[in-house]
Design a protein that fits this description.
2 helices; three-stranded mixed β-sheet; 32% strand; four-stranded antiparallel β-sheet; Immunoglobulin-like; single chain
């Protein structure tokens, strides 16, 4: 119980310290627009800044310390169409976003190819997120 309390308290203290500096926060989730599955390893960038994040295993991300202003948030993930969103960050405010990415799907006779491409994209994204050099193959590839 104590560990759970401390685990939840630390992020709140961190967020409150950012609010006192007059900076904003963007928090959100990234999911597949067709299946609603959360996407882990999605790169989130505030263009024109060095501020960025990568979605976690639950598809969640957070960017802190953002000066007030208008930004273009860019979400990119291999095998999916890149998405750009105009966001207005306000001082001492938390903005919550739910980003839905559309898969790059080939149509017509190329359905099997698009399935293979999606599997390979998942493999590559797993390799990118790993801090150990290794080859990763999905079950579909094997």
């Amino acid at each position: 119980m104590k560990t759970l309390f401390i685990k939840n308290l630390i992020p709140l203290l961190f967020l409150s310290s950012i609010y006192t500096n007059g900076q904003g926060i963007i928090k959100g989730t990234v999911s597949d627009s067709l299946t609603a599955d959360q996407l882990k390893g999605v790169r989130i960038i505030l263009t024109g800044t060095t501020l960025n994040a990568v979605s976690d295993i639950n598809g969640e991300f957070i960017i802190t310390g953002i000066p007030a202003g208008d930004y273009i948030l860019q979400a990119s993930y291999l095998g999916y169409k890149e998405k750009k969103i105009l966001v207005t960050v306000k001082s001492k405010r938390l903005q919550i976003l739910n980003i839905k990415l559309l898969p790059n799907i080939l149509t017509g006779n190329k359905t099997a190819l698009s399935s293979q491409a999606k599997s390979r994209a998942e493999e590559i994204n797993m390799e990118i997120r790993s801090n150990i050099t290794k080859d990763v193959f999905s079950g579909d590839t094997v």
